[in-house]
Amino acid sequence: MKEDNSIIICPADKGKAVVIEDKDVYLMKTQDQIIEGDYTLTTKSEKSILRRLHRKLMDQLVSMGITDFKEQRMYTVTGPVMASMALLIKVHKKNFPGRAYVSQIDDPSYYICKDLTRILNPLDEKGESFLQDTYHFKDSIKDLEVQDTDWMGTLDIVGMFPNIPVAKTLEVVKMELERDETLSGRTKWKVDDIMKLLQISIETFFKTMDGKIYFQRDGLPIGKSISKPLAGIYMHWFEKNFVFNDDNSLKHCLKFWKRQVDDVFFIWKGTKDELEVFVWHLNGVEMKIQFKMELEREGFLPFLDVGISKSGGKLITKVYRKPTHTQQYINWASNHPKNMLLGVLKGLIHRAHVLCDLKEDLLEELALLKNVFISNGYPEKLVFKTIEESWAKETLKAVLCGIEQEVEVEGRKKEFCEVLHAPYVRGFSEGLGRKLRRLGIGYVPKRGETIFTNVCKLKQKIELEDWKTWCIP
Questions:
Q1: How far apart are CA 193 and CA 198, in angstroms?
Q2: Is 416 helix (H, G, I), strand (E, B) or coil?
Q3: How far apart are CA 21 and CA 12, in angstroms?
């Protein structure tokens, strides 16, 4: 199968399924994604593109006074490669469409994007609608009062990253950076230099499976770390001017609005007709920014991995899984440290305790986890013991939640000076880790090669002659 050039082996969009697709069909789906986006085919060679992008970055670093070789190496990739587009197949949808993603690992701006992301993240996180994760969402609705006549709904921003207008986004980012009083604590770079680095980082070329190279004319690149905070900052500006603004005649109907990247949860106390007018107005602001609405059905609405219902003037939550969830987790017999395997079980038990408001929902979720993990090879006694011990631990966490504690652990180091990344060998690595800790060295198991990683290769093979050292600063 691996040597068969007529098929493509790739991961599914959801779950851990592996999809085998005819190569011509796969390329056709890829072309559909390109047609829908703002991309153009380029005739420039891969080497010339990489040289130019690398040189632009180097020139900017030098203009910022970064001339030391070691410091330049922190922000540049020695052997940059072209970003590559691939598809994850949506096996749970009709006709099995693909979801495009672009792997930006080791492209010329890979490292500088990481630093820019660190600088911009606080601007995104301070937004009025910002949600970090499910637990943050759960905490934000705990004191929210609702009526039976209120509408619960979600909005999905269709294809958000490729549709974010870059010019307006950079304008908003510059304005926010100039207002940010804490910027000097995160970086010594000037605002103008940050903006120039952003412009270099956003410029995106990528290669498809058939070897063609495309240039993204507008929109934020999928796969670059910098895209998330940039999109978040733009959407905060959008919401401030068209959702929370005083000129909005339907603002009084909006009781609650929170957003996690491109997913919005809201509570609407007006009529359904007024809600549809409100969404219609939002869809008319920016042609590319379109919202797709879903309303509660029979008093229930899923959002992220939470199932939400109304009861007694409050929002009641529980764990939610899509119908296509396979209930497959890492098997106990797999070649991984046992503490890592046990951590998967403990993490899901913790999620159940936090998200389930009703006792019957919690008991149902714990019973499901019990059966699922036993079927995944976990020892029955260990699963029962872990779930039983969770009651006291989670109760203590709930009691101490929100209480500021100053606990000093004597004789415990906060972090290791050095960390060894090495393949995990059952029966040997555990002892190695203990001995390294005595020397102040951490041990992190390195993922080895699996059947999945061996057959699912969506990047084009780079020939030996293409590996050059011309990008060394």
A1: 9
A2: coil
A3: 11
Token pair recorded at residue 293: 């609405």
- Residue with the two structure tokens 């991309």: 39
| Residues 32, 247: Cα–Cα separation, whole Å | 39
- 267 contact partners, CB below 8 Å, separation of at least 6: 144, 146, 150, 151, 152, 153, 254, 255, 256
Query: What is the C-alpha separation between 182 and 123, in angstroms, rounded?
Result: 10
Per-residue pLDDT tens over the stretch 25-74: 888 888 888 888 888 999 889 899 999 999 999 999 999 999 998 888 88
CA dihedral 128, 130, 136, 138 (to 10 degrees): 70
Render pLDDT for 412-421 as a digit per residue (tens, 0 to 9): 445 556 888 8
Enumerate the β-bridge partners of residue 308: 301, 317
Phi, psi angles (nearest 5°) of residue 373: -75, -30
Instruction: Give the DSSP H/E element, type plus range, for residue 231.
Output: helix 227-242
| Number of C-beta neighbours around residue 101 at 10 A | 17
Q: Are 267 and 278 in contact (CB under 8 A)?
A: no
- Residues 331, 375: Cα–Cα separation, whole Å: 9
pTM over 0.70: yes
Q: Which of helix, strand or coil describes residue 7? A: strand
List C-alpha distances in Å: 320 to 150, 309, 414, 437.
22, 12, 36, 40
Alpha carbons 296 and 79: distance in angstroms, whole number:
51
Structure tokens at 161: 């990253």
Q: How far, in Å, CA of 229 to CA of 125, rounded? A: 8
